[in-house]
Amino acid sequence: MPTTLLCHNSHYFPASTFRPILSCYLVLSSNYSQLLNIIFLILCFKIVMNDEQQPNGIHVTRFTLQSVYAQTDDEKLEFLYESGSTNIVVNGYTSQHEIAQQVDIFIRKMNSIPAFTANLTMESFNKRSIC
């Protein structure tokens, strides 16, 4: 059964980024569902984590993120985490021209998943608010 968690990778996320969330975790660790709701409200992403084994036997963790502002169920970001490295998975959503350009700019060139998700959140919010 998938568990909803916050993805952390020191390569992309400076430790200081998560100090407020860690504080929330320590306060709310006795009530896990409250913690998940707060993370969802703060980040505007539902985050689902699944452990998987690749054909070569290596264990990886797949993080699936879906924005609260997504217009369809197919608008999901997927990341594979293995041994301290996080890579975005190309899927139907991330292969769309507009999203692929953002992946290239924010993740590949600027090495920043937070900048990518923040930009994507603002664009999705603006599209949803205009409609």
TrEMBL record:
It is found in: Nucleus. InterPro entries: Mad1. GO terms for biological process: attachment of mitotic spindle microtubules to kinetochore; cell division; mitotic spindle assembly checkpoint signaling. The keyword Metal-binding does not apply. One of its GO terms (cellular component) is kinetochore. The chain crosses the membrane at residues 20-45. Coiled coil: none annotated. The keyword Transmembrane helix applies. Its main location: nucleus. It comes from the Eukaryota. Keywords: Cell cycle, Cell division, Membrane, Mitosis, Nucleus, Transmembrane, Transmembrane helix. Belongs to the MAD1 family. This is Uncharacterized protein. It comes from Aegilops tauschii subsp. strangulata.
